[in-house]
Every structure is written in structure tokens, then in C-alpha cells.
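Dear H.,

Thanks for agreeing to be a second pair of eyes. The structure we're designing against is below in C-alpha cell form, covering all 222 positions.
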């Protein structure tokens, strides 16, 4: 599914969020500014948007981005090369629930809009904790369902009825953008998610809602 929509993925992310997603990514990375991580793992990197922004904001020595979609990674590598970051960002095909890295390898882990796609959330989070160094941070950016009127009602209308038709028109995949609201609805949110993080290898976990609760940042410390 992600291979099929790769060619429109970046455009639709910005279009459907009215460009707000760029600010969300920046706010998420600010949680890592004071840590100065040298080696960063970007989970479900997609087309490498967050990896490129991480390089520009945090200046780590090396970023490894992984994804199970070859189509997304192909576009990501083109973007990394165009940005002149081929010597700092390295993308590879890998399963987030079975990471091909030794324990305690990374200073920080980032993930934007990918964790909710894990087939087994607990397994994926345990793998993230396993490869993170003690004291390191995992910063996860995910869509959440707002609860405040009238944002809740608008969000439901927009995601459930409008987004799939825009996806069909621009990405030729109504199915992929029907999956989006379904995956958001099924994903644990707020305190439920921070509890799951603590159950899977993280000592601390906090949730910061953004834009009336449409999106949330989860910051967890191993």
C-alpha cells in the first residue's frame, strides 16, 4: 500500500494537514536538542522527511532510517542525495519489529506517523528500547483523536469522509487514505500509550498533545 502511494506521500502529508505537520516535526525534535545525540535511528522513516530535518536541527554524526517500504525508501534516498546529506543519512530496508542492530546502539530514536502501523505494538516498542542506549530518548509523533467540540466532529468528518476521496484523486488510492482514520482510531492514545511505553522497556514517558489534540508527541526515556 505504501509503495503505491509513495509518489504522492509527501505532498499529501503537507496538503491534508495544511502544512502543520512540518511544525509538529520540529516540536518533536526539540525534545532531543539538549541531548546532542550522535547516532540516531529513525523508525518507519518513509521518504526521510524527519531524518533530513533531524540532520539539520540536531546535527548528529549519523542517522539511520529504516522502513519496510522499498518504494518510500527509494524516494527518500533521492531526497537525501538532493539535500547533500548522503554522508550523514543512511536508509535501509528493515522491519521495525525485528531491528538488525545490537543492543544499546543508538543515542536517540525518532518516529513520525509510523508506530501506529506496527503489526505488534509491544514487540516494536521493545525493539526500540532494546537498541536504545540507557538514558536515551525515543520521540514518537502520532495522530490522535481530539476530544474537544467542535474539533472532534470536524476531525471525524475530515478524516472519515474527505481524506479518502482526496487520496483517491491525488494518489490513486482511496484504500490507503481510508486506512488512515481507521489506524488512528485503533491506536492507543495519551495515558494509555505512555503506560504501554513503560511496560515495554522505558522508565519514563510523557505525552504532549498538539493542535487541539489532532497530534501528540510521546517522549520516552530508557
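And this is the sequence the design step returned. I haven't edited it by hand at all.
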Amino acid at each position: 500500500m505504501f509503495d503505491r502511494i509513495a509518489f504522492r506521500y509527501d505532498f499529501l502529508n503537507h496538503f491534508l494537514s495544511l502544512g502543520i505537520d512540518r511544525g509538529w516535526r520540529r516540536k518533536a525534535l526539540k525534545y532531543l536538542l539538549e541531548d546532542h545525540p550522535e547516532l540516531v535511528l529513525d523508525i518507519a522513516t518513509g521518504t526521510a522527511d524527519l531524518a533530513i530535518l533531524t540532520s539539520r536541527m540536531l546535527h548528529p554524526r549519523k542517522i539511520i532510517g529504516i522502513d519496510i517500504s522499498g518504494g518510500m525508501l527509494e524516494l527518500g534516498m533521492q531526497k537525501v542525495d538532493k539535500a547533500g546529506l548522503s554522508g550523514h543519512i543512511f536508509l535501509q530496508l528493515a522491519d521495525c519489529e525485528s531491528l538488525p542492530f545490537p543492543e544499546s546502539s543508538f543515542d536517540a530514536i525518532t518516529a513520525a506517523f509510523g508506530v501506529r502501523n506496527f503489526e505488534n505494538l509491544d514487540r516494536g516498542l521493545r525493539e526500540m528500547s532494546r537498541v536504545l542506549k540507557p538514558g536515551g530518548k525515543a520521540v514518537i509523533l502520532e495522530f490522535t483523536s481530539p476530544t474537544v467540540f467542535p474539533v472532534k466532529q470536524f476531525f471525524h468528518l475530515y478524516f472519515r469522509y474527505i481524506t479518502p476521496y482526496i487520496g483517491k484523486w491525488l494518489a490513486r488510492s482511496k484504500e490507503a487514505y481510508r486506512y488512515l482514520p481507521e489506524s488512528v482510531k485503533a491506536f492507543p492514545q495519551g495515558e494509555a500509550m505512555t503506560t504501554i511505553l513503560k511496560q515495554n522497556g522505558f522508565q519514563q514517558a510523557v505525552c504532549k498533545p498538539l493542535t487541539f489534540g489532532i497530534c501528540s508527541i510521546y517522549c520516552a526515556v530508557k
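Two observations from my side: The chain has one domain: 18-144+187-221. The CA atoms of residues 30 and 194 lie 19 Å apart.

Warmly,
E.
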